[in-house]
Design a protein that fits this description.
Layout (H helix, E strand, L loop, with lengths): L6 H7 L19 E5 L2 H18 L3 E5 L2 H10 L10 E5 H9 L27 E13 L18 E4 L3 H11 L8 H12 L3 E3 L2 H10 L4 E5 H9 L4 E4 L6 E9 L6 H10 L3 H11 L2 E2 L8 H7 L3 H5 L6 H6 L1 H12 L2
Parallel strand pairs: 1-2, 1-3, 5-6, 5-7
Antiparallel strand pairs: 3-9, 4-7, 4-8, 4-9, 4-10
Helix pairs in contact: 2-10, 5-6
Organism: Ramlibacter henchirensis
InterPro entries: SBP, TAT_signal
Protein name: Extracellular solute-binding protein
């Protein structure tokens, strides 16, 4: 039976989590609403949403840029404060699951989210708002034979690069490719150690993986389909393909912290993320797929970054409960054995 993680397991997962809870803290009435997010292209594109919220709702939004681990640590360390320093967190679906299990998130009130009716039914969740989604696929140089399976990356002809922040998705993908499953990571650990011995490289960001393709340092990777599309549009000689084992899907979700001091305003900000112009700019800028009915994506781009019904049916099925139970184990493996 799949079990949910204990509170102790969740707290252990947050790297660098401190045992002591700081003294009570609060912000002045009126905000700003603090949104924890990634930097780089995501931060740049979110600035359009920040301006929209300010102009349309007179709500000030401050972006708190950092790693997902930093966002989770901050949320967990402030669970017992009257007010969290972060009102909205932007995370992938597996991390949102972790935070919901730790009771760190406020249930959403759809009535407070403008445009919620345009959110596709499959993306309606009690504690989070998926703003876009994508999947990890095979990306390779057009100078090598196209790999058709994840397992192909272990062939000597491929110089493989992996993005550091995708570790908790690469591990189950490697497991599935070598006889395991998204609920049995052991074969994935063994396979990745073999890949390391073959000269595999880990890069700090998706952008760094793209640069490695450009320099010829690597010729194959596990990467977001949308990123590969962007690189191709920029003239990078790469291609992408769906692995026969299936792509690994991920939602990018916003959620309101349980002890946000500005929950009503935070819901308004979530509504801004559903506006057609924001959905389009985020999707086009990051190569992701919108989650709303009215995003108005150009059909040719939608076909290139999106997925057919058949491809979606073949997606791997992430086991969030197993990921949560094995979170510390995965992180230790990746940092201490695989990267070390």
């Amino acid at each position: 039976m799949i079990h949910s993680p204990s509170r102790r397991q969740v707290l252990q997962f947050a790297a660098g989590f401190g045992a002591a809870v700081a003294a009570p803290w609060s912000r002045a009435a009126g905000g700003p609403v603090v949104l924890g997010t990634w930097g780089g292209d995501t931060e740049r594109l979110l600035m359009q949403m920040v301006k929209t919220v300010k102009d349309g709702n007179s709500i000030d939004v401050k972006l708190d840029v950092g790693t997902p681990a930093a966002r989770k640590t901050k949320m967990l360390s402030q669970l017992n404060r009257p007010q969290n320093a972060m009102d909205i967190t932007f995370l992938v679906d597996s991390d949102v699951y972790l935070m919901s299990q730790a009771n760190a998130l406020r249930p959403l009130d759809p009535a407070l989210i403008p445009g919620y009716a345009n959110l596709l039914e499959e993306f309606r969740k009690p504690h989070s708002l998926p703003t876009m989604y994508s999947a990890l696929v095979l990306v390779y140089s057009d100078k090598v034979k196209a790999p058709t399976a994840i397992a192909d990356l272990w062939r000597a002809e491929y110089k493989v690069g992996l993005a550091d922040l995708s570790y908790d998705k690469v591990i189950p993908m490697a497991a599935v490719a070598h006889g395991g499953s998204t609920s049995n990571f052991a074969p994935g650990y063994d396979a990745l150690m073999k890949l390391k011995q073959q000269g595999m490289r880990v890069y700090s960001s998706n952008e760094a993986v793209g640069n490695a393709f450009k320099s010829g340092e690597i010729n194959a990777a596990i990467m977001w389909k949308g990123r590969a599309y962007q690189w191709m549009e920029a003239g990078l000689p790469v291609r992408y393909g769906m692995p026969k084992e299936g792509a690994y899907p991920v939602n990018f979700e916003m959620a309101v912290t349980r002890n946000s001091g500005f929950p009503r305003e935070a819901h308004q900000v979530l509504g801004a993320a559903l506006l057609p112009e924001i959905q389009r700019s985020m999707a086009l800028g990051l190569g992701q797929v919108p989650t709303t009915k009215n995003a108005g994506m150009p059909p040719d781009v939608a076909a290139k970054v999106g997925f057919t019904d058949q491809e979606r049916e073949r997606f791997m099925k992430p086991d969030f409960a197993h990921n949560a139970a094995k979170a510390s184990e995965m992180l230790d493996f990746w940092n201490q054995r695989f990267k070390g």
